[in-house]
Design goal:
mainly beta, five-stranded antiparallel β-sheet, 2 helices
Amino acid sequence: MPDFFPAKGSFHSLSRIGFSYYIHEVDESGDPRYYGYVDHRGAWIIMQQNRATGAHRYCAGKSDFSTNWTGRVGLSYDYFSNVV
């Protein structure tokens, strides 16, 4: 797991409401790598880390993490500021 994205992360939206997400799933089997985080309400963030380019993109939702984690390769990813 990347050092800059700890097992527990606090993310703050533009509206200054804080959310705490905890690591739930990790897929480091290829490039890109994927890291799945879930909060206590079931909201989730999946981070896509492209090791070849150094890019990090995100996808987020409010429920159904397991279905989205299974389909993570086909999700649409964007900059963090555009997702949360």
